[in-house]
Amino acid sequence: MLRGEDEDASELKIGEDFLKAKCLMNSEVAILLEHRYDQMKQMSGDSTPLPQVFEKSLQYVKCFSRFTNQGSVKQVRDRYQLAEFELAVIGNLCPETVEEAKAIVPSLKTKGRGHDDEAVERLLNDLLMIKKFE
Amino acid sequence: MFLKVELPWNVVIPPANLVAKGLMLKKSISLRLLKGFAANKATKDHGYFLAITTVESIGEGKVRRSGDVVYPVVFSCITFKLFRGEIIEGVVHHVLRNGVLMNCGPVENIFLYKDLMPDYRYVPGENPIFLNEKTGSKIVKDVLVRCVVLGTKWLEEEREFRGLVSLEGDYLGPVS
Predict the structure, then answer these.
(1) What residues of chain A score a pLDDT lower than 50?
(2) Most buried by CB count within 10 Å: which residue of B41, B85, B98, B148?
(3) What PANTHER family does the annotation carry (chain B) (predicted)?
(4) pLDDT for res B31
(5) Which residue of B has its CA nearest to A11?
(6) Chain B residue numbers touching A103 (CB-CB < 8 A)
């Protein structure tokens, strides 16, 4: 586990455990939590209060969800060689230009990763198409 | 960032529950796991615990001297953790003289210090705001703000994280 001082998401230093863990976009979490919410309501009815952490997170992801079609987002995930973390940040914030994408995901700029501007532009266009046709 | 992680857990079943028929065992283990999970709001290493997605495996139970049986369980769940350097979007819930407080997901207290809001000035009043004189943009309650995480702090007693963020960087600030 990385100590606090070594951790830096802008350089993709987020600890081995988390690089292996699957990063979820707000939209994916929204689907999972809504499903869980329905299950919990069915099991215990309206009487049991939901844990606050759950409620706040559900509110947040519903508000910040950008995509509704998870299938197509998964396709974009497979087509480009991005770390899970990078793709999740892009999926959450939906940058419109290549400059914006590089500003919010600084690790894209790291040399030797083979992500030239054209590749990033194609990725952003793909995501934009997905949003348009949802 | 929301993450899906696989975690190990030891579920303890007291002898009273073991009297039930064998088929009910898996259900008792699941229920206990859910209760334990919900009670454990967050940990320093993994962040906030949101929901269990699947139970991957239930190992062989070991009987303790007290008569309880401990089952090692591996399950997948959704967690939330803020990483230093990550760009997040939060919602302002309080405007103070020296900065604003935001929440992002389950984290309720993320502080944006006024000196880290370039070009924004505090405007006092009944509904205080932070105003950017150059662009006219306002940071006020319920505004969505995109910022970069400078650091986080784990508070053991309250079992929660506090965050410190900044607007210093390209493409950061209120989001329309």
Answers:
(1) 1-3
(2) B148
(3) DNA-DIRECTED RNA POLYMERASE II, III, DNA-DIRECTED RNA POLYMERASE V SUBUNIT 7
(4) 83
(5) B85
(6) 169-171
